[in-house]
TrEMBL record:
InterPro entries (alphabetical): AB_hydrolase_1, AB_hydrolase_fold, AB_hydrolase_sf, Peptidase_S33
Pfam families: Abhydrolase_1 (PF00561)
Residues annotated as signal peptide: 1-19
Organism: Flavobacterium cupriresistens
Molecular function terms, GO-annotated: hydrolase activity
Similarity comment text for this entry: Belongs to the peptidase S33 family.
Gene3D superfamilies (alphabetical): alpha/beta hydrolase
Keywords: Hydrolase, Signal
Record keyword Signal present: yes
Domain of life assignment: Bacteria
Protein name: Alpha/beta hydrolase
Domain AB hydrolase-1, residue spans: 34-291
Record carries keyword Hydrolase: yes
């Protein structure tokens, strides 16, 4: 019996320490509607969103919870497994820590995969799901990136880029190397940059890069490798899952940048058709980081939908 008690208290201690490793910050009045921001990755963090947008959402009457997933960003943890189930455990821990029965999930980029699968597994915990430049069908995104960058490289006669595209196409499509190569090509072709930065967006990015949050912009380069090693559900298509969620009556909203180069027009049209016109916003002169590229339009959409 004594040994059992010792084991029990040891487990409690481990859980407590694990909880302390998770970076979490709240903004606003806890009596207001809760919004949980789920960042991109693997290897991402919430620093840009937290620096630029979290407090402004709180000022609009929401209780905003920002966190970095276990082993990513400021949630340093050398024992992290990097799986969806681990991400679900951390989200459930946030619900418990802040006494939340339900919350709206704002999911950005890879965070869209996490939030969609979490909503499928725990539908009673989700008031609504907001897809913000969120991945839905990974292979469709990779195919679009490779097809579009190849078209540009052929037009410019860029043999170096064409060679890189060919090497990427021959990689294992369920590997971290394939994912990285696709997004590297996208980045080299400015797929993540808004075409005509506004004065407001330039100030937001500048303030971030010269402020305290940029200093904690930690990128765990091992996170994608570990995720693709440990998680069986990689390179997934969440379209059927989103259809299931919608059929259950959980509101889905979608806000995307018109100039986000990683999504094809077919993908954007599919998302719009799924969520309906009044649940969809396509923001002009806006790329992947829409909450910073066109912050006012982003905030206006959230305010309109999550009343």
């Amino acid at each position: 019996m004594k040994q059992l008690l010792l084991t029990f208290f040891f487990l409690l201690s481990c859980c407590f320490v694990k909880g302390q490793n998770l970076y979490i910050k709240t903004y606003g009045d806890k009596t207001k509607k809760a919004l949980i921001f789920i960042h991109g990755g693997p290897s991402g963090n919430s620093t840009l969103f937290e620096s630029t947008t979290a407090q402004k959402l709180a000022d609009n009457g929401f209780y905003v919870i920002v966190y970095d997933r276990r082993g990513e960003g400021r949630s340093v943890d050398s024992t992290a497994n990097f799986t969806y189930d681990e991400a679900f455990q951390d989200l459930n821990g946030i619900y418990k820590k802040y006494h939340l029965k339900k919350a709206t999930l704002i999911a950005h980029s890879f965070g869209g995969l996490v939030a969609t699968l979490y909503t499928e597994k725990f539908p009673k915990k989700v008031n609504s799901l907001v897809l913000a430049g969120a991945l839905i069908s990974q292979q469709e995104t990779y195919d679009h990136i490779l097809k579009s960058v190849k078209k540009t490289a052929l037009e410019k006669g860029n043999t170096t880029q064409l060679q890189k595209i060919t090497l990427t196409e021959n990689l294992n499509k369920n590997s971290a190397a394939y994912r990285k190569a696709c997004f590297d090509l996208a980045s080299e072709n400015d797929y993540f940059k808004m075409p005509n930065p506004t004065e407001a967006s330039k100030k937001l990015y500048s303030d971030y890069e010269t402020g305290p949050f940029y200093k904690t912009n930690i990128r765990n380069k091992n996170a994608p490798i570990l995720f693709y090693t440990n998680e069986k559900r990689n390179n997934i298509n969440n379209k059927p899952v989103l259809e299931k969620i919608k059929a259950q009556g959980i509101p889905i909203y979608a806000v995307y940048g018109q100039d986000d180069g990683i999504f094809s027009s077919d993908q954007i049209n599919w998302i719009e058709n799924l969520v309906r016109e009044d649940h969809f916003t396509l923001i002009g002169n806006c790329s992947h980081y829409l909450y910073t590229d066109q912050q006012e339009a982003f905030l206006s959409s959230i305010q309109k939908w999550i009343k």
